[in-house]
Amino acid sequence: MTAAADRLQPLRDLLPHVARYRAQVGLALVFLLLAAGATLALPHAVKLLVDGGLTRPPAGAPDEQLAAIREHFLFLFGLSLLLGLATAARFYTVSWIGERVTTDLRQAVYAHVLRQSPQFFETLKTGEVLSRLSTDTTVIHNAIGSSVSMGLRNLVLLLGGLAMLLTTTPRLMLSVAGIIVLVVLPAVLIGRRVRRLSRASQDRLADTGGIAGEVLNAVPVVQSYNREEAEADRFGRANEEAFAASMRRTGTRSALTAFVIIGVFASLLYGMYGGVSAVLAGEISAGQLSQTALYVMVVAGSVAVLAEVWGDLLRAAGATERLLELLATHSPIAEPALPVSLPPAAGGLQLRFNAVRFAYPSRPAASVLHGLDLHIAAGQTVALVGPSGAGKTTVFQLVQRFYDVAAGAILVDGVELRRLSLAELRGRIAVVPQEAVIFSGSIADNIAYGRPGASADEMRAAAGAAFVDDFVRRLPEGYDTFVGERGLRLSGGQRQRIAIARAMLKDAPLLLLDEATSSLDAESERVVHAALDVAMAGRTTIVIAHRLATVQRADRIIVLDHGRVVEDGTHAVLVATGGLYARLAALQFAV
Description:
The chain is an alpha/beta fold. 65% of the residues lie in helices and 10% in strands. The strands form two sheets. Strands 6-7-8-3-9-10 form a six-stranded mixed sheet, with helices on both faces. The chain has a four-stranded antiparallel sheet with strand order 2-1-4-5, with helices on one face. The model has no long low-confidence stretch (mean pLDDT 78).
């Protein structure tokens, strides 16, 4: 019993989610008991019909016998009516509970995953997360919305049927019960293997989701390299592995079901044989035999269903375990116990890196920043320049606290970064990434993503400043134009301008630009640069750029190399110095 409980331990962890709906659970249990009670009463009603209504009537009293039969049939109809209504009510209530709990669980897992740091996604594919949110929650829904209810109902029928058989034919049932015990013990051992195989099957299915999610997000690259067949083959291998794991689970579960059904039916048929012998010996009546036969059918049917339910619960336990792993994951980026509030930022934020050391958690031996010291005054526009791997993007990620530093400190307006709440910190930062992220929806929706409470006029003003109006006016539906998944209906330059408009609408005191004009043509770049000049006024701006036009606009150019500041100054000063920047400028900017 303890081993069985341990295997279903993950399902017990779902109880807090179910406990929110105690009233519905109580109502479902009432309907379940009513349905089970009606089912258990039917064999006794049949016994009364056979012994009381079908016995040979006294001479001249056929009408009395027919009236008695009519009463028994009305009683049977009343029981069937109660059984039907209670079963329907139980099904609806339990289905509601299953749908509600899995909806809550899916929402809780999704919201929890959204709060994880990028470190979380370095080790877990997005497709696997989606598989757990869809496939695993479906398995759990089937368990809560169907299997648990069927299991409880048939457990009540099994216990009630055995109790009635023990009451009516105790001698037969004692021998049958001993045989049933011999059947159940091996079934428990088989069930342990079913759970292991269920978890393996879900893992292999998640692998296929991971591959599909990765490839479908890069279809143009796959096609440009003629890798469609190779990727289909890679998915096919993972799909076949998932199929093989699923069939191993199904085969073992089928063997479990067959073993239990055959064993229990054999033992109960043995009991029936004894019952027939008792009728022939005159020890029990024909009605008692009918009652016994029906209770045997109830018990055998209950055991067969319980064997199926046991397999469903073991599979659901594996799915629950995978989902709870996500819920148990704690982001290393913790909120401060007593967050500090920053005063309103007038003229931008001040940033300071004090001897910052950092290595990505997935590559702890490869340090990216080595004692970085950097000060950016409020309102300054600073360009970060350096070779690949110098730490430019890492600076952006640390400022937004996607990761925590290994040593040293980052201060915002004199307050250590980790003392600020994540919402307050990130609420003061607007970002324009190199690869513009566009969500499925309209152009207006994507711009308003920066500040959902903004008015339509504010949204259009930001769009005009970012040169979005130029192409929106040519679209039949204007700002209501649907952009498609990841903005695939737009050009790269159009997506980038929408991302710039989004950042401008947010109107944050710190603006991070990561090659913000890299996807624009010369004309668009000229206009957007003018818009960025307006956007950068009155706030602190950090720019990662390689284009000369962007770098020359900066108040300071900070050159990073191997995680350290190696040069700091204006474009003219650094070119005259003849150091790393001058070499990069000669190579990249043709000066």
